[in-house]
């Protein structure tokens, strides 16, 4: 059962090694894993070496153990070169692939034209007079 999960992580690009799988087996044999939540935490700690892959691990875990669909927009974003994705997002932030339709209709945050008010509202101390 857990071998299939290991191979699914590899298939989606999470760089897990056979030694990681063996460490996970040891943790399970030693009694560290009692529940599915335990397995989630221990497997992620043992097999995911970079925080870059945490979100992908979460998606794969939810798909494998809970039957949730893997977000296609998320996978598309992962498959693109990060630099290209960043350039696209900076050029057209309201059409980023990870935004929901609701987020696209109601922009939030600090975009062009909104930062002026932030800087003007900043308190000025006695040594920072205009």
Give the gist of this structure.
The chain has a domain at 2-70. 59% of the residues lie in helices and 0% in strands.
Give a verbal description of the structure.
- It is a single chain.
- With 130 residues, the protein is an all-alpha fold.
- It has a domain at 2-70.
- It contains eight helices and no strands.
- The chain has helices at residues 2-11, 18-29, 36-47, 54-66, 72-79, 82-91, 101-105, 115-121.
Average pLDDT for all residues: 79
C-alpha geometry? elongated
The protein's oligomeric status is: single chain
For the terminal residues, how far apart are their CA atoms?
Answer: 67 Å
Can you tag this structure with a few keywords?
single chain; 130 residues; mainly alpha; 8 helices; 0% strand; elongated
What's the topology here?
Layout: H1 2-11, H2 18-29, H3 36-47, H4 54-66, H5 72-79, H6 82-91, H7 101-105, H8 115-121
Helix pairs in contact: 2-3
């Amino acid at each position: 059962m857990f071998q299939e999960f290991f191979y699914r992580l590899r298939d989606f690009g999470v760089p897990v090694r056979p030694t990681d799988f063996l460490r996970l087996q040891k943790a399970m044999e030693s009694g560290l894993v009692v529940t599915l939540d335990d397995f989630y935490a221990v497997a992620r700690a043992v097999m995911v070496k970079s925080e870059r892959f945490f979100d992908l691990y979460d998606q794969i875990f939810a798909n494998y153990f809970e039957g949730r669909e893997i977000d296609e927009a998320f996978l598309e974003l992962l498959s693109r070169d990060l630099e290209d994705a960043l350039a696209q997002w900076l050029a057209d932030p309201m059409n980023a692939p990870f935004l929901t339709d609701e987020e696209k209709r109601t922009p939030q945050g600090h975009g062009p034209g909104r930062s002026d008010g932030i800087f003007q509202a900043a308190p000025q101390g006695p040594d920072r007079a205009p």
